[in-house]
Amino acid sequence: MGEGSESWGRVVGLGGIMAIDGMWETALALKSDGTIWAFGDGPTVQVSGITGAVGISGFYDNCVALTRDGTVWEWRGSTPDRPARRGHTSRGQRRL
């Protein structure tokens, strides 16, 4: 479903969606159970390590999620398996 793609259609396997957002080559879906799913140029995958999400946003190749406890998570759209809590200084993150 990315740039140059001629195949558009229904995303199979996602139900109970509360919100969606898109960015460069990936889209995000927030399910009613608080899990986040990424889809687009690759397979549909669950964003690991985040539960209880209440909001999502994607821009260019960056994603953020807000969880019920007020934590903000961020990750690159191409690495949904490695989100990091915002405020931790590993991987070059800044504190809010």
Care to describe what's here?
It is a single chain. The protein is globular. The protein is 0% helix and 41% strand. The chain has strands spanning 17-22, 26-31, 36-40, 45-46, 53-59, 62-67, 72-76, 84-85. With 96 residues, the chain is mainly beta. It has one domain (17-84). The strands form 2 sheets. Strands 1-2-3-4 form a 4-stranded antiparallel β-sheet, with no helix packed on it. It has a 4-stranded antiparallel β-sheet with strand order 5-6-7-8, with no helix packed on it.
Tell me the total number of β-strands: 8
Enumerate the spans where pLDDT stays under 50 for 5 or more consecutive residues: 87-96
Q: Give me the secondary-structure category.
A: mainly beta
- Radius of gyration, taken over Cα atoms and rounded to an integer in Å: 13 Å
Fraction of residues in helix: under 10%
SSE arrangement, N to C: EEEEEEEE
The average pLDDT score comes to 77
* Number of contiguous helices: 0
- General form: globular
Q: Report, as a whole number of angstroms, the end-to-end distance.
A: 33 Å
